[in-house]
């Protein structure tokens, strides 16, 4: 296909050779399958702020820093330069998170380069070498649901141990990839990722991420629905005893003064409402 204008600079720089096809169009980016030498990769082209339906909510942007003090002042004032700086910071958030999580061993696409608002990264494929499906496009047996749920909880813990909360994790941004002869989930779409230690909304967003996983896989394995992995994970993290190899139970006993359980449940109910609205948006053309 003819290369989109936004990908021309990458072709001129020799970062990609040809554009094969458009893979998807989402609320915040367009994704293309591209060829780079002998490899097939994907190029995520971020939409301009005026074209995106995603709102940069304070939940996500709180305590997101820029090193340049002039940029920080301009962002605070909302000047044109500040908006441009904020846009650049938003785009680089996913790049930073991908490199950070890949280094921590989290199952995310391998990032290769970021140039002119385009993220070049690994194309996650299925057993036939085609682009891997999202979880919401796949039906699972109870055994498969329990297995993938357990795998993803390990990834959520590994992310948290690396200081990152996805912030928008659900069946819509997890791919069922195929690597080394086995199917396994791969986490994508990280521009909303937040710093677990520096964001006051981190606990709520972590609980929402885990609740989304529970709700989705609970359709296939109802025994997952009563579990309380989110509360357990966050409690262990707060107490400084959460590690990638931590064995989780799915049970949580409230300790006096430790967690406002009723408040947490209200937040989860609110999050479910947000998720229902988001699913409706996801079904609409990008």
Question: Topology of this protein?
Answer:
Elements: H1 5-12, E1 18-25, E2 29-36, E3 39-46, H2 58-61, H3 69-77, H4 80-103, E4 111-115, E5 118-122, H5 142-161, E6 164-165, E7 174-179, E8 182-187, E9 194-195, H6 202-217, H7 229-238, H8 261-282
Antiparallel strand pairs: 1-2, 2-3, 3-5, 4-5, 6-9, 7-8
Helix pairs in contact: 3-4, 5-6, 6-7, 6-8
Describe the structure concisely for a colleague.
With 286 residues, the chain is of the alpha+beta class. 40% of the residues lie in helices and 17% in strands.
Using brief descriptors, characterize the structure shown:
17% strand; alpha+beta; 9 strands; globular; Transferase(Phosphotransferase), domain 1; five-stranded antiparallel sheet; 286 residues
Q: Could you explain the architecture of this structure?
A:
- With 286 residues, the protein is α+β, with helices and mostly antiparallel strands.
- The chain has a single domain, classed as Transferase(Phosphotransferase), domain 1, CATH 1.10.510.
- The protein is built from eight helices and nine strands.
- It is globular, with a radius of gyration of 19 Å.
- The model is unreliable at 51-64 and 70-76 (pLDDT under 50).
């Amino acid at each position: 296909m003819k290369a989109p204008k936004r990908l021309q600079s990458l072709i001129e720089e020799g970062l990609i050779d040809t554009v094969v096809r458009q893979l998807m169009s989402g609320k915040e980016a367009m994704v293309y399958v591209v060829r780079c030498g002998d490899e097939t990769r994907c190029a995520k082209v971020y939409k301009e702020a005026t074209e995106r339906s995603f709102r940069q909510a304070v939940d996500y942007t709180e305590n997101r820093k820029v090193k340049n003090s002039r940029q920080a002042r301009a962002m605070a004032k909302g000047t044109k330069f500040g908006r441009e700086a904020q846009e650049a910071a938003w785009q680089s958030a996913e790049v930073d998170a991908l490199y950070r999580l890949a280094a921590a061993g989290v199952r995310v696409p391998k990032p290769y380069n970021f140039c002119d608002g385009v993220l070049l990264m690994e194309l996650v494929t299925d057993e036939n070498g085609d682009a891997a499906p999202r979880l919401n496009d796949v039906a699972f047996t109870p055994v498969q649901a329990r297995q993938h749920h357990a795998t993803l909880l390990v990834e959520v813990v590994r992310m948290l141990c690396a200081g990152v909360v996805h912030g928008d994790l659900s069946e819509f941004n997890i791919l069922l990839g195929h690597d080394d002869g086995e199917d396994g989930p791969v986490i994508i779409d990280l521009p909303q990722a937040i710093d677990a230690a520096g964001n006051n909304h981190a606990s709520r967003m972590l609980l929402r991420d885990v609740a989304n996983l529970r709700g989705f896989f609970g359709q296939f394995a109802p025994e997952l629905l009563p579990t309380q992995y989110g509360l357990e994970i966050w409690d262990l993290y707060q107490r400084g005893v959460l590690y990638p190899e931590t064995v989780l139970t799915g049970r949580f006993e409230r300790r006096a003064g430790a967690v406002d359980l009723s408040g947490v449940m209200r937040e989860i109910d609110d999050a479910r409402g947000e998720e229902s609205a988001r699913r409706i948006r996801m079904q609409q053309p990008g």
